[in-house]
Amino acid sequence: MKQENARLQVAVVGVGRMGRHHARIYHELEGVDLVAVADADAERRSALAAEFSCRAHATLEELLREHPSLDAVSIATPTTHHLAAAEELLPRGVACLIEKPLAASSADAAAIATLSAEHSTICQVGHTERFNPAVRAVTEMDLRPRFIEVDRVAPMSFRSVDVGVVFDLMIHDLDIVLMLSRSPLKEVHAVGVGVLSDKEDVANARLEFEDGCVANLTVSRLAMKTERKLRVFSEKVYVTLDFARRSGMAISTTENRASIDAVREKLARGEDLSDLDYLALVKMQPLQMEEEEPLRAELQYFLSCVREGRNPAIDAEAGRSAVDAAERVVQSIREHHWEGFEGMRLV
Ligand SMILES: NC(=O)c1ccc[n+]([C@@H]2O[C@H](COP(=O)([O-])OP(=O)(O)OC[C@H]3O[C@@H](n4cnc5c(N)ncnc54)[C@H](O)[C@@H]3O)[C@@H](O)[C@H]2O)c1
Q1: Whether residue 121 has pLDDT greater than 50
Q2: What is the mean pLDDT of residues 164-190?
Q3: Domain spanning 8-126+294-313 has what CATH number?
Q4: How confident is the prediction for the chain on average, in pLDDT?
Q5: Any residues with Cβ below 6 Å from ligand 1, and which?
Q6: pTM for this structure?
Q7: 313: helix, coil or strand?
């Protein structure tokens, strides 16, 4: 735990597309000193160090040698390098914010979770979507979901093509679905199609949880439009969210009790209701949400955990659960039987 007013010494390892935003935000935050960035690419690390007035290092070893009192580090190297960085930092007690996915395999993710637990070092996973104001509004509703539907489709960006769309995009939704369902994952059935490589570019997964909740997730990085939507059906409330627009709507049985009772009675009497305007009947409540950059909220939360010595809600165990689920989805895709479509089957 740090003294309330003490400044935090932080650094970023890997300042590519994501890492540069971590560096920008740390540079802007009050009470934080971005002391250095480390990146294997000399041009990139020098440019970032000049932009944010900090030092540049070629390796993590050099960073640790030059800055022995670091409090926290963001790891934003490619996913396959996350474990190697965590192995250097967590045993030294340096808190880590590791970009999503936590690791490229369940075994690596479990190794990171073990390091964090054994050394009692804070480790948060960069599931930024949890800090999307729309998702935060739903989390605060404390739902007991029965059925969750998520769509995340976008045109090909030609980034993160070293992993399939499940580890690239579906991992966001797997984390949210696991967080909302709060029940162990029982079964996974998935199907995927790879078009541009031997990895899946389009995938659909049906997840069933021990408590009976079912989630249906669809992702594509070959779509002609960008859409990121979540629908949650719980016992008393139906919620629909648009991640991209950061907007949402809730329909609760409590708010609509009078209409529901009236319609039930009429249906029971056998009345013809085909002229009834359903949309005019239903009372919808827009979700209240704050305008805040999700990554800024994520880093502020991480640093508040570092200051207070508090375990973050999205810790290495949560990151490991998401990676486990992603691995089960990929496994199910591999096992999927395509009658007469051998050419499209992913192996
Ligand atoms: N939270 C999100 O929404 C989100 C979005 C995109 C990417 N990501 C994640 O962020 C991570 C980085 O992705 P990216 O798109 O920024 O990749 P990137 O390729 O743009 O950047 C990675 C950087 O790491 C550097 N690097 C590679 N190996 C290194 C090493 N051993 N030591 C130091 N530097 C090293 C590279 O030179 C590069 O600058 C990945 O885990 C990815 O999944 C998260």
Answers
A1: yes
A2: 96
A3: 3.40.50.720
A4: 93
A5: 13-19, 38-41, 44, 76-79, 81, 99-100, 126, 128, 159-160
A6: 0.93
A7: coil
